[in-house]
Amino acid sequence: MAPYSLLVTRLQKTKGLPGCTMTGPKKALGVRQYHVASVLCQRAKVAMSHFEPNEYIRYDLLEKNINIVRKRLNRPLTLSEKIVYGHLDDPANQEIERGKTYLRLRPDRVAMQDATAQMAMLQFISSGLPKVAVPSTIHCDHLIEAQLGGEKDLRRAKDINQEVYNFLATAGAKYGVGFWRPGSGIIHQIILENYSYPGVLLIGTDSHTPNGGGLGGICIGVGGADAVDVMAGIPWELKCPKVIGVKLTGSLSGWTSPKDVILKVAGILTVKGGTGAIVEYHGPGVDSISCTGMATICNMGAEIGATTSVFPYNHRMKKYLNKTGRADIANLADEFKDHLVPDPGCHYDQLIEINLNELKPHINGPFTPDLAHPVAEVGSVAEKEGWPLDIRVGLIGSCTNSSYEDMGRSAAVAKQALAHGLKCKSQFTITPGSEQIRATIERDGYAQILRDVGGIVLANACGPCIGQWDRKDIKKGEKNTIVTSYNRNFTGRNDANPETHAFVTSPEIVTALAIAGTLKFNPETDFLTGKDGKKFKLEAPDADELPHAEFDPGQDTYQHPPKDSSGQRVDVSPTSQRLQLLEPFDKWDGKDLEDLQILIKVKGKCTTDHISAAGPWLKFRGHLDNISNNLLIGAINVENGKANSVRNAVTQEFGPVPDTARYYKEHGIRWVVIGDENYGEGSSREHAALEPRHLGGRAIITKSFARIHETNLKKQGLLPLTFTDPADYNKIHPVDKLTIQGLKDFAPGKPLKCIIKHPNGTQETILLNHTFNETQIEWFRAGSALNRMKELQK
């Protein structure tokens, strides 16, 4: 903070600063009042980021709103509640009930990765608005395929994706959106380094946006239509989240890492245990975790279905802010710290306690991120289950684990192996999280150590984590094991091979296992044999959480939006195979949905990867009709146990799901999908909602939904409905037809009636629940949220 005398001088010279109000004659102000007023004026001038010097952090407004809500609720508040309720559009009148009411919020900013930004910007263009209303950024990280290595892969990506990158760059320039070029790094690492701060409310079009919670913000993954609302200046709606508390005691040490905290929590809560809730970490154990370690934990909270995760502001966050050139934000956060930590005595809807002293290194998988094993036990479990023990590839990095500390701990393991003449037995890849991380680990020698042990440094991008991996060492269908420091390990996620058994763990465990080459190796107890024939044991890695010198920023990869964009053109060719302007979806016709054909009844897990695959399909994320050719190709049909094979009810022939959906659309046959539990878990990709709507779908009926996907379906005018009695899933057969009644009286909390018409002429009636509020019902009637926005503009 500036010296007291300087503050008084500033006050005397200032007639008024943004956010500062002075009342009464100046001579009535005592010295203490001068000081307080000066501090308030100084607070008002701290920018949210270096890139937006005129957009200020509004802790004063946060404080005001928190005080209004605290007085209304008359109880201690969790940190999650302080930040969320502190961003209410109308804190004095907003109905607040955890898990029940919908909140109208004013987020501070929006972030979009390039794969989802295409559709988000196409929707924003359709809105007709001239500029975004809040600070927004686009990050090019999803379209770079891992093939040969960082520089070569980046050059290839720039060439292949030139049309898309040009569209995003010019759209950003036209509408006031900052643009991070390809090679800049993964969106979540860029946000942590530049945009997240304690108390921020940020929404991002990627499910791992919660990464920013490691810096004390509420950062939530959403679909593109939600981002459009916020960029348009419309209050954003979120069901009032419950709050799950995770109390941490003890301290991390040895081989145990921050990743093990979330791997343990995932094992406790499962992939849907956090749905509708914010996970709030607290307790004395928090201080033993670095800021980037906290980000790792928050990042993978997406895998338990949580709305987001958050840590309280502490000295580890301040240290990170200082090192990343944001000491002014750290000083401001110190002033408002009471609002950036939970109140004593606050209530959690569920409480989990983890003693970090007792926590052991974990590895989760295969095929689901909540199947948790201690590293010491996974080898014997794999033998029992018939999982391949031989590790073909170890992969470190991704948005979850690509910090300076992560790379340092991995290098510490690799250095020990090299000292004994060993290299990795498995293939080994390294993905830096950002250009800043890449440049810094190159300067400090970590990258070379990882290369020396056998690693290939990939581009600063998502790469294999999202299926952008041109894998050559196996054939499709070949059973094999990989270990990664990523966040997801769904079937076929990384390499499109359904027989790849993917396990997620910490970067240092990945490195140790890649050196050993087998799941049966436990670095805490087992020995390796050096080149000289002598046995040795790896010591637990130790590395600095931040570099001693300043970070090396590397190449400048940011494009500022121009002050005057009136002459900026944004072109989309009508013959493009990558981009397609959007046409409005049809409005509801005012009638019940009669005789819906069942496109597919899904058996078991159905993630957004099953609904709208990534990997090679990412190139079509800006072209709705082309990407719709991957609709539900990964979902298992209950009728025959096969993927991408469904019966055409008219021809009675089995064929691909997208082809069958197109046939129904061309013949005026409306259809429905029947799903199982936690339908749509995983990514925030709204293509999984846009595609069924585009191809004639009208409703998705399941046992339960993942939060983001349910909202995305509503935004596009579809009906996400759940069985009142989950056992009714078994009453519906793929050859049946369904009629959904009650839409003329569609109202919040009122179930809809579903008539099941069997081929033999018999009928059954079941009830379907929904979570629509009045605003969302208007989206349905208008045909989509975007249609409704245009109606309101008129």
Automatic annotation (TrEMBL):
- The answer to keyword Iron-sulfur applying to this record is yes
Q: How is the cofactor bound?
A: Binds 1 [4Fe-4S] cluster per subunit.
Q: Name one GO cellular component term.
A: cytosol
Q: Which UniProt keywords apply?
A: 4Fe-4S, Iron, Iron-sulfur, Lyase, Metal-binding, Mitochondrion, Transit peptide, Tricarboxylic acid cycle
Could you say which EC number(s) this protein's record lists? 4.2.1.3
Which part of the chain is the Aconitase A/isopropylmalate dehydratase small subunit swivel domain? 597-725
Q: Name one Pfam family in it.
A: Aconitase
Tell me which domain of life the UniProt entry assigns to the organism this sequence originates from.
Answer: Eukaryota
SUPFAM superfamilies recorded: Aconitase iron-sulfur domain, LeuD/IlvD-like
Instruction: Give the Gene Ontology MF terms in alphabetical order.
Output: 4 iron, 4 sulfur cluster binding; aconitate hydratase activity; metal ion binding
Compartment annotation? Mitochondrion
Q: Member of which family?
A: Belongs to the aconitase/IPM isomerase family.
Q: What is this protein called?
A: Aconitate hydratase, mitochondrial
Q: Which organism is it from?
A: Camelus ferus
Phylogenetic placement of the source organism: Eukaryota, Metazoa, Chordata, Craniata, Vertebrata
Gene name of the record: ACO2
